């Protein structure tokens, strides 16, 4: 992953010339957005201390990287092989604002369990090509990654894991390739309440916040409430008996959705406008990404109320991600996926997933659909909740996540082996029954009484009774 020296020099100059806000940062920590102090600290280290070459070498040592042409696009992927591949292959799909770099901690764990691991960069992310025309949504990306696994890497059986956009793409992988994709593991088991909330989005999502809260609130509040509580003013359905959530849980999720989805509206409507700013300013790009990682990760909270991002991740880990977006100029093409899916893809009902599915739920995850929603959308075999962790589980809780994936895949393998044994035993039983029947049938080669001359019909011809 070499980078031209001129790109590095240009980055340092831009960071040196960053124009930070001169007004005081008011409000509680995080209430108005990214912590400027944290952003400045990271920007200074990015300029003066961060070494991309060493980060790239570290990534390459853990998971060698390759590119391949599929459907006219360059697809970048990391491919780590187990020394003893005794279990199978895993396709791990990231989301936004993320990259293949988030596989760096979980890959060594999974390979030690006996899995090969493939971590591609989504189309338009990192070193993968941007889309050449509209329509590159989750379903099309899934088709590309199925081709990668089956035709390029020759895996005839694999499990797909995904979070964020990777979770949605993994649904289409499982549905489109049921013969080879033996299981789906997700940290965002995307599912909806009985009434499709997205059908109402276009009528209210782009209006002003005042209108949304006062005049247009029924439309958009119904949408958000549907996504977070499972109900809205036009949907009288209730949770099945015994499956109601606590009021505190519902309020917490609903509040988080309202407070933390401002970015989504802009990226889903005018990504190219936002892209100009983020692609031009490294400080702006840093702030945009770091704010999400700070808010969505399950980081320690200081006595001041400030969320301590650097207590969970190192500066190098955060900046490796931000730097990747910068040197590839991929921030604009990455957020285009919101435009492709939010008004077209997500308004379409997702297909039911017949593939055996496991859902891993981390407490700091933004969207946590109730189990009974998930049961209605997937062939759910495992639903595991964790005490710690957030949106970026591969980086936050790699050990817990790897163990959960391994436990699920191991169960699938054991069930497949048992099924194979049962089928073999059944075939053996059927063969034995056929042999016994044949042995007991006169004139079929044994076991029957031989006819005497008197029993033979006239003409000396033999007939079987």
From TrEMBL:
Gene3D superfamilies named among the record's database cross-references: alpha/beta hydrolase
Ranges of Polar residues composition bias in the record: 225-237
Domain Epoxide hydrolase N-terminal: 3-101
Keyword ATP-binding: no
Protein name in UniProt: Epoxide hydrolase N-terminal domain-containing protein
Keywords: Aromatic hydrocarbons catabolism, Hydrolase
Keyword Plastid: no
Biased composition (Basic and acidic residues): 419-439, 450-465
Stretch list, region Disordered: 225-252, 419-465
Signal peptide annotation: none
One Pfam family matching this protein: EHN
GO biological process: epoxide metabolic process
Active site: 164 (nucleophile), 338 (proton donor), 391 (proton acceptor)
InterPro entries on file: AB_hydrolase_fold, Epox_hydrolase-like, Epoxide_hydro_N, Epoxide_hydrolase
Family to which this protein belongs: Belongs to the peptidase S33 family.
Gene Ontology molecular function, alphabetical: epoxide hydrolase activity
